[in-house]
Amino acid sequence: MSYIGRVIDRMGTGPSTVSVTPISPGVTRPWILLLAVVATIREVVDVVHGAGRWQPWLYVVLAGPVLVVALVRSVRWRSHKIHVHDYGVTIERGLGRRGRSSVAWADIAAVEVQQGLRDRLSGRGQVVLETATGTWTLGLVRHPMALARVIESGQHHAGPRSPARDEQDAWPLSRAPRGRRHPRAEPVR
User: Fold this and answer.
1) pLDDT digits over 87-103, tens only?
2) CATH number where 137 lies
């Protein structure tokens, strides 16, 4: 049984938390560029006569800004977390100025997964929570259907939340017909 499957089975038995770090947008390219800049500086120093005395300044001027961008993006990526608790979903962002947003199970009306062709091929997508107050985009994550199933399982184990919750779902999220919305997306009257 997979890790997500074990988490779904355990959701109703006691306190549990699933934490996910979204995919890092724009982290790899600065590191690759930094390696290319360092390799170019080494090659220039080896080829050009007298460039060795300028080598430290070349590293500071050319590689320094790329290193700063790579470090900032890496730290920002690592400081963004999504937690699925027994009481709802929490999103934590920020490093110096920390921000935390929470959505209780009772407030989530629907869970959607948005994937383009490229995202489906690479196994990633965005999980969107629809609430009465608006839409919450959790960010680009790996295995978005698994995260959506964990969220739906948490909702199921949380108990009744509204009159619409008492209705039996017509289909699970993973098998919803194309072009139709999940039944929980309908407004509660």
Assistant:
1) 888 888 877 777 888 88
2) 2.30.29.30
At position 53, the amino acid (one-letter code) is R
pTM for the predicted model, two decimal places: 0.58
Q: Is the torsion defined by CA of 168, 169, 170, 174 positive or negative?
A: negative
> Does residue 18 sit within a domain?
yes
Structural domain that includes position 43: 28-77
Q: How many CB atoms lie within 10 A of CB 149?
A: 20
Enumerate the β-bridge partners of residue 20.
Answer: 82
**Sheet with 135-142: strands ordered across:** 108-114, 124-131, 135-142
Distance, in Å, from the CA atom of 50 to the CA atom of 45, rounded to the nearest integer, reads 8
**Helix residue ranges, H only, the chain:** 3-10, 28-47, 55-58, 64-78, 117-122, 144-158, 163-166
Q: Residue 13 is which amino acid?
A: T
Q: Which residues contact 73 (CB under 8 A, 6 or more apart)?
A: 24, 26, 27, 30
The DSSP element (H or E) to which 129 belongs, if any, is strand 124-131
- Assess whether 10 and 101 both reside in one domain: yes
Which is nearest to 129 in space by CA: 140, 137, 119, 121? 137
d(CA 181, CA 171): 10
What whole-number distance in Å separates Cα of residue 127 and Cα of residue 138? 6
